[in-house]
């Protein structure tokens, strides 16, 4: 029997096979429990059953992967390789079960062992492979690549501890190691034969070879081994999958016996410990030189192992290295993988003997780059001194790229030394390498992630590059995966929508627009409201478990969950909460709608102000939640350790989505899309994808306030003085003085003086005071609307109905057709 016949015999790939039933699944589960988990099914724990179920569905994905790889080897088409430092894939089991259409049969099979699938799913730990929106977007993109059968895979790092697990102790964020691998990861396949040597430090020897060509060798390096782990990811009811290959760092030498024999046990394993630091944590703190060096090494470790692997696959399936761009497109998700540009050039020149000009031309036909930020401080730059020490060959290559690039700039702008300085890859003043410039110069396509972001990016910090290479820049608005963010995480609403308009929307999100007429159906609105109420109860239970705070599900659930950052303006949200608190205490608003405000997100360990904001949120919450004068009209809670699995409960249970970033600073956002898809109304600024959500849902179904990005720019340029807003608004003044004077922390009155001073005398760079009055007024509009529940429910239905544009499938299809130039695989079912 051939392998294809064996796979066909054992596979569950065809869902209409007559032998594919609960009895067959039961036999498979027993087999995995005994042979792979090593437990007696009669006494197996819930976690044991979790492993058995994962091994079972992982086996199905593995069969598909083998078929798919055979197809790709035969077709020899172009493939996309997605490089990202983050992948927030969350829990994977239920999503995969739904993708494989196994939900009913698997539940039936497990019931014969007196096991419940939902309980088993809850055993899964979120994979700690990311931090925020960047990582969640990357995970959605891999899901969609599989959904639409595009030939692609992802590369990342197998972080042992992720970023950190957040707890709140005495109101403060405390970081703990995120031990997500403590029980192992049954989804992954370790690939012991897939490993690559990654080099650091050393020196460069340049000479002329026997043919008189200039040659450079990188010698005396300190090396680390990259070991591959594969995680297959399913497509929704398709025969295709995508693979996420993660790299784990290993020492080239685990143990030095000579040190051990001398009794120096620490030194004996020093190389192992130092080497394996590279895949310990996501984004090591780079506030010190040692931290910066570790982070640079981590990024190079990631791109070097990934490119070597891509090269190896290309060599197995193709002959001429000059055909590389016809078979390979490498996508850089933000600047973290930017070292891939000089690394590919190094491989072409040093390993394949290509001349620099030819190699550089091949590179520029291979890379595409997504920019994710408008914050100059978030654009990576590396000190030349550190790069010279860690990656001397790459610095040498970057100088050569820059020389070639600046020659082009000189020809385009003769005699303009100012533009030469602006466009150089090297900042001669700070002595740093500008990695965003490297990505732009080395890529044939550069995109932003929302229409406003792309416009500002091209008109602002990359204006010179846009003018020089206008055809390179484009926009690809972000999207979300409706399979996870509605079909899976909100089963009640998903079932109602399927009952009302069918299930076409599950694979074609724009079909949700058929819901729009039902917004005028009173019966449908009641059902929609009842489902939201049930989801609010579920969210309130989560909050109670994690914080001990009891929320009233009949109150408005007002939610802001995202990374804690000044530009995202959690502090403005908090200023509104304090304003409400003052009004309740003063009795000036007797008809106020009860409101539960939920805030969540992590602050970077070295970001002092963000951590102070978290502490202030908790201090304010402690005061409000324990004040009997509030009479249930207001509660505030900080939900710790926000992650994907919590988001799957938060998004369906939320009613008001806070998207209040400083205009011109949020590239896109995807949380705004997830909230709206689940029927939450947005209060937001004209920033990022909020603008496109506004265009889709209409002015009457969203709450927009404040200035535009252009107005924010003009305000700063004209000499913004926050004290003017402070002096003219008595309510704002009272709010800030309460924070300044320690009303919420009487044991330490000066605790938040730095926050106060930063707003009043530090320039208020993020324009909180300028937007405060408009925000408070908009919140009054929110409250008036919420008082009319029938109107609110109608608006909520229309938000869900008009989210079709924001499917990740549209995003990936745009990339595939316009940027990557890849076509779907024609796999047989």
From TrEMBL:
SUPFAM superfamilies: UDP-Glycosyltransferase/glycogen phosphorylase
Enzyme class label: transferase
CDD domains: GT35_Glycogen_Phosphorylase
Catalytic activity: [(1->4)-alpha-D-glucosyl](n) + phosphate = [(1->4)-alpha-D-glucosyl](n-1) + alpha-D-glucose 1-phosphate
InterPro entries xrefs: Glycg_phsphrylas, Glyco_trans_35, Pyridoxal_P_attach_site
Domain of life: Bacteria
Documented EC number(s): 2.4.1.1
Alphabetical keyword list: Carbohydrate metabolism, Glycogen metabolism, Glycosyltransferase, Pyridoxal phosphate, Transferase
Protein's GO biological process: glycogen catabolic process
Cofactor: pyridoxal 5'-phosphate
Post-translational modification N6-(pyridoxal phosphate)lysine, affected residues: 674
One Gene Ontology molecular-function label: glycogen phosphorylase activity
GO cellular component: cytoplasm
Keyword presence, Oxidoreductase: no
Family of the protein in this entry: Belongs to the glycogen phosphorylase family.
NCBIfam families: P_ylase (TIGR02093)
Function: Phosphorylase is an important allosteric enzyme in carbohydrate metabolism. Enzymes from different sources differ in their regulatory mechanisms and in their natural substrates. However, all known phosphorylases share catalytic and structural properties. Allosteric enzyme that catalyzes the rate-limiting step in glycogen catabolism, the phosphorolytic cleavage of glycogen to produce glucose-1-phosphate, and plays a central role in maintaining cellular and organismal glucose homeostasis.
PANTHER family for this protein: GLYCOGEN PHOSPHORYLASE (PTHR11468), GLYCOGEN PHOSPHORYLASE, LIVER FORM (PTHR11468:SF3)
The protein's name in its UniProt record: Alpha-1,4 glucan phosphorylase
Organism of origin: Magnetococcus marinus (strain ATCC BAA-1437 / JCM 17883 / MC-1)
